[in-house]
Each structure stands twice: as C-alpha cells, then as structure tokens.
Specification:
Layout (H helix, E strand, L loop, with lengths): L21 H13 L4 E4 L2 E4 L11 H7 L11 H15 L3 E5 L7 H15 L6 H21 E2 L7 E2 L2 E8 L5 E9 L17 H9 L2 H7 L12 H4 L7 H15 L3 H18 L3 E4 L2 E4 L2 H11 L3 H9 E6 L2 E6 L2 H31 L6 H4 L3 E7 L11 H31 L8 H6 L1
Parallel strand pairs: 3-12
Antiparallel strand pairs: 1-2, 4-5, 6-7, 6-12, 8-9, 10-11
Helix pairs in contact: 3-4, 4-5, 5-9, 5-13, 6-9, 10-11, 10-13, 11-12
Protein name: Myosin ID
Family: Belongs to the TRAFAC class myosin-kinesin ATPase superfamily. Myosin family.
GO molecular function: actin filament binding; ATP binding; microfilament motor activity
Length: 440
C-alpha cells in the first residue's frame, strides 16, 4: 500500500488507520490537506479535498510519474485512478468506469477534466493524426458543455448544472477512437430564476460580454445583463469569471469540434430569443389578454424565422383536446406568463440536448468493424452535479440529491462490504463498530 510517504503527511490510505473512527478520519484528512496532500486513498478509491486554488500537480512531469505504475507505487493522486482504469481496460480487454461523486463545489468537474487530460496524454504514442483529432475533440467538448450546462452558484463559480456520462472508446491498441456523451437532469429552472448571489448558465453572460457589437446588434441585445429579467440577478454579481475570453474559447472549441458557422449563429439566436422572452409582459383589455411590448414579438419572429402570428399564438393560447374536439383557449395574463417561462425553459433544454447530440454525431466511432479492427473497449466517466443542502428547491436538484445518495450506497456496497466479505473468506475476525458500522 501507499506507505512510502513519510508519516509527517499522515496515512496515505485510510485503510491503514489504527483506529477507524470519524474523528481519526477527519484528523488524518486535515493533516494531509495542511501539508499540501489533497488526495488520500480508501483502498482503490481516492478521496479528494478541493483546495480552491491552482496546484502544480497535473503537469507533464507528474503524468510521467504515474504512467504505467501500479496504484500504490506513487502517492495518492487522481492520475493513479485514471491509469488503473486504463490499465485494467487494456489488460482484461473489458470496459471500465470511473465514478465521480460528492458535495456541490467538491471539484468533480475539474476532476473529470484532469482524467480526460491524463488519458489524452498517455495514449497515441505514435502520434497518429486521426487519434490526435479525436482526443482534441473530446477535450474541447468539455469547454462547450460547461458553457451551456454550468453556472456560478453560491458555492462554486463553475458548478455543473447537469449530469454527464461520457464513454471514451478505444481500439485494440488502447488509443481513443471516439466517444459518446449522455446528459441528465439539466437544471431548467435556472433559465428563468436564480437565487441571490447566483447566475444563470455561463452561455448568456459570455454572449453579452464577449460577442462583437455587430453580432449583438443583429440579435437586438445589448451588453448589460441587468437589462434582461431572466438573468439580471446574476448580472449584478462580481466574480473572477472572464466571460469575454470564455466566449472566444467556446466559439473556437465549437469550430474545432465541427459546428458550422450557421449552426453557431443559430445557437446565438436561440439564446437571444430566450432573453427577449423574459422581457415580454402581458396585459388585459376587457376579456382579451394582450402582449404589451409588441416590438419584442417582431424581434422574436425575426430571430426564430417564423411569423408574428405564430409567436403570439404560442404565447397567448393553449390547445385543449376534449374527446374528438381540439379547441384553442386563451390564456389569462398570469397563465401567459407561466407559458412564456415554460417555453423559455423548453427552448434552452432542447438547445442543450441538440448541442450534446451534435457533439455525439461528430465524436462517435464510425466505420469500426470488430472483425477487422479488433475489439473496441470503453472507459466511462460519470460526473453528476453535487449534493446541496441549502435553499435550492429545484426538482432537478432533488433528483440529483437522490442520485448522490444511491451512488453513496453503491460505494459502500462495492468497497466496504467487499472488504468485509474478504475478511470472512480468509477467517479474519472483525466486528461492527466506529465509522464502518455508521456507514452501513
């Protein structure tokens, strides 16, 4: 085990603790963190503590230290887990999976990026152009997904607001040849509402603060986020995020991945449409509900390339089916507001799913025949957004909290119970007490 680190850094593996209790666990974790050791093992699991600062432990020299090494040959590190998963896949010719879970702000998204970077760094020693292209697209996809699926929260400037499972496909030599992304539970409620101190998705602020003036004019929007009801709460927040630079990075990443100029322009139009939707207001003239700022209807019509009457009909009426009859019923002003918000959320979710689908179309494995090219294996990386216990009352957060609980139970079952079963098989006496029994 990882005993070669001196004791001044504490126990590198919690399995080595003399007394397994919560107090001992936290004392060891604190000691290692204070000594600059943010990773600690529990058997084949690595516990990570977010330092909330850049650390020089992910460079090429560190990659070389972990490349091809067994799990306990080097001090605990995320790279050791990534390398173990990669070696297991190559040696056994079987699919493997890395699960990343934890509280919101724990560093899960950064961990998934470092895992991807490590796998990219240790593969394709012959520098085949096609493999390099695939690796570059897989890495760039993170940049795009973060822009449209991440947001600043009270605990984290780059919090994932969706769940992501990425499959990385490898050929029989162990080089990446493609991938596939599945997304879950995008936090749609964030499109129309954010808590005090939080922002909506990064994509809005990047567009407003990073797009050239000519693009903003064509979209009929201005640089000030506080001018738009859906994002004005976040528009007032000072943060370290450089939205202008991020806009350019995301646009460049979309081009590298393979989005066409027209597709990128359409994405901007949909973002602008949602911003304009949030500024629509409704009034009543007798029994008739009206849109008060009709100029915005004309703008939305232009951005969506449709007719004004279609926009008005979508916002002011709903279709009701009663038996064989289908009738159109006019909204009240309040119902029209609810419908507008539902439309904005649905548009953003469909945009996000389309972006994920477009990335998948480009990075998926094509023309691969196992009879010719050998078996194709997979490493899966699961990164879901974190457990939150403060006043985030969205349905998606409730679901993700439940998912995190289930993942924790899976962790307990696969790791701790396996240890107990091994003790029983080898006739080693043990008893339920301390941290272990509490977890179970």
């Amino acid at each position: 085990m990882a005993e070669h680190e001196s004791l001044e850094y504490g126990k590198a593996d919690f399995v080595l603790l003399d007394n397994v209790s919560m107090e001992e666990f936290m004392t060891n974790l604190k000691l290692r963190f204070e000594k600059g050791r943010i990773y600690t093992y529990i058997g084949e699991v690595v516990v990570s503590v977010n330092p909330y600062r850049a650390m020089n432990i992910y460079g090429r020299d560190i990659v070389e230290q972990y490349k091809g090494r067994e799990l306990y040959e080097r001090p605990p590190h995320l790279f050791a887990i990534a390398d173990a998963a990669y070696k297991a896949m190559k040696r056994r010719n079987k699919d493997t999976c890395i699960v990343i879970s934890g509280e919101s702000g724990a560093g899960k998204t950064e961990a998934s990026k470092y895992i991807m970077q490590y796998i990219a760094a240790i593969t394709n020693p012959n520098q085949r152009a096609e493999v390099e292209r695939v690796k570059n697209m897989l890495l760039k996809s993170n940049c795009v997904l973060e822009a449209f699926g991440n947001a600043k929260t009270n605990r984290n400037d780059n919090s994932s607001r969706f769940g992501k499972y990425m499959d990385i496909n490898f050929d029989f030599k162990g080089d990446p040849i493609g991938g596939h992304i599945s997304n879950y539970l995008l936090e749609k409620s964030r499109v129309i509402f954010q808590q005090e101190g939080e922002r909506s998705f990064h994509s809005y602020y990047q567009l407003l603060r990073g797009a050239p003036d000519s693009l903003l004019r064509s979209l009929h929007i201005k640089k000030d986020p506080t001018a738009y009801n859906y994002i004005k709460v976040g528009g007032q927040i000072k943060s370290s995020i450089n939205d202008g630079a991020d806009f350019k990075a995301v646009a460049d990443a979309m081009k590298v991945i393979g989005f066409t100029g027209d597709e990128i322009q359409t994405v901007y139009k949909i973002l602008a449409t949602i911003l304009h939707l949030g500024n629509l207001t409704f009034g009543v003239d007798g029994d008739v509900t009206l849109i008060e700022n009709t100029k915005l209807v004309s703008v939305i019509r232009e951005l969506l390339s449709t007719k004004e009457e279609n926009v008005e009909k979508a916002l002011l009426y709903r279709t009701v089916a009663t038996g064989r009859d289908v009738i159109e019923k006019q909204h009240t002003a309040q119902e029209a507001s609810y419908g507008r918000d539902a439309l904005a959320k649905a548009m953003y979710e469909r945009l996000f799913c389309w972006i994920v689908g477009r990335i998948n179309d480009i990075i998926e494995v094509k023309n691969y025949d196992a009879r010719v090219h050998g078996k194709n294996t997979v490493i899966g990386v699961l990164d879901i957004y974190g457990f939150e216990i403060f006043q985030n009352n969205s349905f998606e957060q409730f679901c993700i909290n439940y998912c995190n609980e289930k993942l924790q139970q899976l962790f307990i079952q696969l790791v701790l119970k396996q240890e107990q079963e091994e003790y029983q098989r080898e006739g080693i006496p043990w008893k339920h007490e301390g941290l272990l029994s509490n977890s179970l």
